[in-house]
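PROTEIN DATA CARD
Card holder: Cell envelope protein
Chain length: 482
Origin: Flavobacterium beibuense
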Amino acid sequence: MASKKLSLWVFPLFLLTLLSCTKDNSKKKETIDSAATGKAQGLSLEEVRAIAKEAYIYGFPIVDNSRVQYAFFVNKLDSDYKAPWNTICNIPRVFTPKDKTIQTPNSDTPYSWIGLDLRAEPIVFTIPVIEKNRYWSLQLIDLYTHNFDYLGSRTTGNGGGNFMIAGPRWKGKTPKNITKVIYCETEIASAQFRTQLYNVADLKNVIKIQNQYIAKPLSAFLGKPEHSKIKDITYIKPLTRDQENKSLQVFNNLNFALQFCPTHPSEINLMKRFAKIGVAAGNTIDTLSLSPEIKKAMHDGIRDAWADFKQLQIKLEKGEVSPSDGYGTRAFLKNNYLFRMMAAALGIYGNTKEEAMYPAYYIDSKGDKLDGKYRYTIRFSPHELPPVNSFWSLTMYEQPSSLLVENSLNRYLLNSTMMSQFKKDPDGGLTLIIQNQSPGKEKESNWLPAPKGPFSMIMRLYWPKEKALNGSWKQPPLVKKD
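Structure generated from the sequence above:
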């Protein structure tokens, strides 16, 4: 649990007890009692179900984010462990099918990860000068999964500097040698560097850049004594991804994480509503003591949340909604919690659209879902390649796992750094080949291997141009050849 100091700023820790349901003979409906506001409140089972649905949609991204953070920054026995909090871990390689913690991983750019514990004091990033044409970014992600800001080629340039990330309680003065101060809504956050890799031979240059990324607590950056030590967080056991999808324990994991999320003014009434079923910062719901009727209502609420997600996913597959709609600041999302859930469920930590866009392929040109038993092509007409200031890629994912695909070429994507290797069409266009079996040696340069079964693909446009942002450029269709 969080320290006693932490409880001074978090949403009040309600001492909630969910009682077994009783029957009101006059109203003919089951009720639930809650001490959330200091007096008993009767809730119908329909209300419990509705609130559970809302709380689940709201909380799923937070719980899943905490699951990843626990693996990356807390559990040293986890194969995906990176480094302790406030310590950069450079990964001098790209994702492969062996990486299974994050859905739809990016294999374009080697990553550097850092978990940010901002409770005691700010963290200062020192960034080196990076050559003009190499793309880099530092994506800053709060506990809600909002991308609350960026450093990088697009936003701050490649000239280097000192950038301070401060938590919501920090009230200190900004040192003179700080280039920019960025505030985070939550006490716990994470950040990920992406550094462009041109080819295998370029890896040594990427490693050199990664080794110059520095993160220090403000006191260490200033050469002063360490800020007063804050108590380590005692973490609740994270759920597996499958458990997150259906277990009532998800609400307790949400309650744990909410301790590090001071209530936003726009969500005060929402938190009061959630508290009626025991969802509140630091609270523990005794799920074993709940009546069967209450348990069913809450489970039904979770199922209702996934039903809403499925409807949104259909719109996504039809192109009526973009994956980019789920990533961004709180202001951009406008508290659209279902979009935020969509983003976390399909590919947590995606970029804000100004940083990268994600045109996706879930169906072919005839509206059929994609399967490796068929052959497909994507053709870019001359002068109609993805419009970007940096680079673009197309990555293959098997379904339903949304993970990279093992194949004989160890090729998980095609991207614009491979343009010199691609074979162009007679008119100067470019045709990419999507299928499970090799199209033959003479065509393998344009081949993206698919699995034998269901799959999807995501195109990434890094630092997209206005033509992409305003929708005047459209991704070409995926055409089935059989």
